[in-house]
Amino acid sequence: MATFLCRLGRLAFRRRLLFVLLWVVVLGAVGAAAATAPAAEDRTDSMPGIESQKAFDLLEQRFPGTTANGASSRVVFVAPGGQKVTATANRTVIEKFVKEAADGSQVSGAVDPFQAQAVSKDGSTAYSTVSFNTRADDLTDAGRKHLETAIDRARDSGLTVEVGGTALASKPAAGGAAEAIGIGIAAVVLLLTFGSLAAAGLPLLTAVVGVGVSMASILALANALGLSSTTGTLATMLGLAVGIDYAMFVVSRFREERAKGRAPQDAAGLAAGTAGSAVVFAGLTVVIALAGLSVVGIPMLTKMGLAAAGAVVVAVLISLTLVPALLGWWPNAVLARSARRSGRIQEAGENNGGSRWARFVLRRPAAVLLLSVVGLGALAVPVTDLQLGMPGDEVKSTSTTERRAYDALAKGFGPGFNGPLTIVVDAKGASDPEGAVTAISEKIAGEKGVVSVSPARFNAAGDTAVFAATPATGPSDKKTQDLVGAIRDHRPAIDASTGATFEVTGTTALNIDISEKTQSALIPYLTVVVGLAFVLLLVVFRSVLVPLKAALGFLLSVLAALGSVVAVFQWGYGAGLLGVAETGPIMNLMPIFLVGIVFGLAMDYEVFLVARIREAYVHGDPPGRAVTSGFRHSARVVVAAAAIMIAVFSGFIGAGESMIKMIGFGLAAAVLLDAFVVRMAFVPAVLALLGKAAWWLPRWLDRALPVVDVEGEALTRTDPAGPAPAEPAVRESARI
Q1: How sure is the predictor about 177, in pLDDT bands with cuts at 50, 70 and 90?
Q2: Of 283, 279, 280, 307, which is closest to residue 293 (Cα–Cα)?
Q3: pTM (global) more than 0.90
Q4: What is the DSSP string of 551-581?
Q5: Which residues contact 519 (CB under 8 A, 6 or more apart)?
Q6: How many CB atoms lie within 10 A of CB 450?
Q7: Residue-range domains of the chain with CATH
Q8: Residue 375 pLDDT level (bands cut at 50, 70, 90)
């Protein structure tokens, strides 16, 4: 492996124009394919294996056309204090709004609240549902403006008018200026790390090229593979993250080899053979984590995971070919300014920050290990109270009309009105379908926690009915989840007495089912990902305890990060500092996203850092000195890579949407804990305590495992790059 990659790096350096043109052609080809490919169809991914999806499928079959997912808006009217919406003047305003809204070119209908009994018992609140014949993304500006104008006229009358739904909902921003600041911080960190604009810009440039190739490929294949518009989100985020990291690792090793006196071409080859080997196996661990998302059984997650895995593969290929090629154009520009001025490169000294920190840990490993484990364990405690859900308008800021509409409906009609349960009754096998539906409706109405049920509506064949059950509690309340479970638990007895069967669906039930499915899949997902990664790291490091230590460290960091998310977004500690308007359940896909993304980044740091430690150990250093040597060469670039990721992910905290804040905070916290606590403290402390035992491997297993040579031992034996000069000097031909 190391020898092959060394030759590839030397070839890319020597034939740099060819390799650069090759990637330009690839980017242009996939870009052209993306531009000419048919647009992806609007598809709603199913959620197989959950009851709410099964009920939804039955609705589509028995009530064709009624589950169309066109845009809609729920316009809420609240009368001024002391008045009622049923007063003549207020009623006239609302009825005028209904007629005006219904005249929109893309509107399929607007409901009169006085005819549909959509008025609260106290008469203070009413609502009208405006339905469109197209999806929210396809609404024209004129269509939106027409509804907005009608709303503004109703407000001018003195009524309080708020709007929920999808038609006028603003699309969440990914962070805006805060994200741009994060990327700017990343550039500054790269500049401070390398002391060269070229060295700082090269990882950013190659990462952008990689993301461009990946995203263009996804767009080109979107229609053929049924990819949604959100499929590329994870691919972009992770492709950019690992693209920067991998290029940094190669550039850092190139500079290190130059400091030893290697010629530029030889240094590029050795960088590709050593750091490049670590990149390959780090990339494999990321691909394992992303492909493992298929374990969850949610098609959307599977597609996102595989698309992101493809982006990681592209990032690996670019780091092994395009990065050495660009180093061929700028062999000295990537060096520190002091080296370019003096014409001499100083190798990393024995007493840089990384080696000093390693010696500090080696002097007191037990204390460092205990402190890191106890600290991470304390942060992980809130995970025991983890509640998954899909936060909606209730967690938005009160400055948004969606949140005010939600609150007005909850006040006027009760908290559960915002999350009704849809009951689908299959009465095909009942001797008296209407009687069976009536009995089921009465049974559900009698459930503790149900405040009302709507009249049942039958399909044309008369064998299927649907009605709504309104809970007493809100859609994200734990009591609502318990209510759904209680209704389903009582179903066997109800089915037996009526001869019909029913299922519970609707947005609230769907979110509950997805949350339960995600939570139940988390342990199998962790088992598959960590297990496969353990085998891979076993091959890479030829040790039993080092991969075990890596897996345990990752579990500690990810649980601590999840605990931090629960403490802030569910319990409310420090929520005000982050601009979180309202606490609530944790987004149901958040743990899976967190595990997948952070596992990839954590294994990047693990492979790069420990590979340098093992390299020193294999080349003859005793265990303690090997740890110090590895930190001397790797700590700075690992810290810089982690700081970049923290800066980029922290940019999402500045978003207006609570869910995006949650993702940004969780990822930033996880990288912070994994890089600075686990990799910088936990790992060296464990290696110090284990000593030589850390690299123990049974002989039978040593013979069975393939030799991959991540440390570049073969390069030392064969010396394909040529011997290094005795003095670290820049050759005349390489000077600027």
Answers
A1: low
A2: 307
A3: no
A4: HHHHHHHHHHHHHHHIIIIIS-TTTGGGT--
A5: 386, 388, 588, 591
A6: 19
A7: 1-36+196-347 (1.20.1640.10), 71-165 (3.30.70.100), 176-195+349-392+522-697 (1.20.1640.10), 421-505 (3.30.70.2470)
A8: very high
